[in-house]
Amino acid sequence: xxxxxxxxxxxxxxxxxxxxxxxxxxxxxxxxxxxxxxxxxxxxxxxxxxxxxxxxxxxxxxxxxxxxxxxxxxxxxxxxxxxxxxxxxxxxxxxxxxxxxxxxxxxxxxxxxxxxxxxxxxxxxxxxxxxxxxxxxxxxxxxxxxxxxxxxxxxxxxxxxxxxxxxxxxxxxxxxxxxxxxxxxxxxxxxxxxxxxxxxxxxxxxxxxxxxxxxxxxxxxxxxxxxxxxxxxxxxxxxxxxxxxxxxxxxxxxxxxxxxxxxxxxxxxxxxxxxxxxxxxxxxxxxxxxxxxxxxxxxxxxxxxxxxxxxxxxxxxxxxxxxxxxxxxxxxxxxxxxxxxxxxxxxxxxxxxxxxxxxxxxxxxxxxxxxxxxxxxxxxxxxxxxxxxxxxxxxxxxxxxxxxxxxxxxxxxxxxxxxxxxxxxxxxxxxxxxxxxxxxxxxxxxxxxxxxxxxxxxxxxxxxxxxxxxxxxxxxxxxx
Length: 480
Ligand code: ADP
Prior knowledge:
Elements: E1 7-9, E2 12-14, E3 20-25, E4 32-38, H1 41-60, H2 63-79, H3 81-92, H4 96-116, E5 123-125, E6 132-140, E7 143-147, H5 155-167, E8 170-174, H6 180-193, E9 200-203, H7 207-216, E10 220-226, H8 229-240, E11 245-249, E12 254-258, H9 264-276, E13 286-292, H10 296-309, H11 328-343, E14 347-350, E15 369-372, E16 389-395, H12 398-406, E17 410-411, E18 413-417, H13 421-430, E19 435-438, E20 453-454, E21 457-458, H14 465-468, E22 471-479
Parallel strand pairs: 7-8, 7-10, 8-9, 10-11, 12-13, 12-18, 13-16, 15-16, 18-19
Antiparallel strand pairs: 1-2, 1-9, 3-4, 5-6, 6-22, 11-21, 14-15, 17-20
Helix pairs in contact: 1-7, 2-4, 2-5, 2-6, 3-4, 3-6, 4-5, 9-10
Bound molecules: adenosine-5'-diphosphate (ADP).
């Protein structure tokens, strides 16, 4: 099989400088899903040059003109929803229904920022000196280097590229190694949307080498990253050398709290969304379940009943609710968290094992798992699991559960279920997380700010907030 070109620079599809290739594997079957070019820092530098050369003209277009391209892209992505979704499901395993939702989410971002481009307002500020005027301009930061993970391969790109382009920045994107096929298809749509040459560029390739080019090349003014906290810290350290702007969407370890006054059925559905969607491979996935001691038994029973009905399988099959894990490394981490918890006294209430019978044996499948009698010593209660396993901890009162919930280096998402409106407000205010779902297990929307506190990141994506990271604020003082 010939390698598909995966490097797009200055409007051209190119071979990688290294001439290396990458084989993409379907995690549901172990079969080869494709072979693509695999570049490195040399390709990244070429792409940065192209983006840099295109910046002057792109940033000087009117916002209405930039908006037109984004709107074209919105329509193309919407119209190619099924094709993009099938590629996502093929290369990283998520159920087709979810993949289609992701593609529509991406399209929605392109539309949102097609609109937002037109609303980058400045200010005039009253002066303290009678013959001076203060004017505040908002201008694009320059060339943006974007790095994204495999878990939402299309929408993570949209959430960075759409606001960057709307603001007037030009872009070099490095997708994840696991998901180049949907990235290539998305970029073919960028090409079709008619963006001027050099405005958007893509390099699939070696992460360290490309990351280093993004750090070292002074033409890159901003690094926008979604991925692990470990890599985020490396990029922040590197970016510090030239004081590059960064925005970081990093790991999470979400507490999910169920009070004794909660609607338990709604809480089970919310937890299912938060923990088992995308096979638990989301930075906002619940990673710790705290249930009030008065309802812990009945809640766990309801949860297990729900999981018994969940069909695990190839994401491309119609009835699949939970797909495979993305790769063997991901699977081994999840199994390690289960073993570690059990060795410290946790009990399996449901699941607990890799699925190996028949077709399952070729993929990276695991049963959705509930671990009861968990405690704070277990890895799963403080390390990000990224899989369909939830540990249950019983709690006695509100104050103690807030303390436990906030006891984390992460601060991305938290969830609380209660029918008591005062308690809901207290949770909204006291949980130290960038996103709080109150009676809501699936809180993301295009227009809402998405991002974390503490080691979960810096900056926000989404809506009007998502523009900030791609704009500089310039103060102009005028003597009249
Ligand atoms: P995950 O474990 O979820 O794959 P990573 O943080 O390793 O999370 O990956 C997220 C993205 O960061 C991917 O596109 C990956 O290729 C990229 N990446 C990994 N290591 C580096 C690095 N040293 N420099 C730049 N990007 C990197």
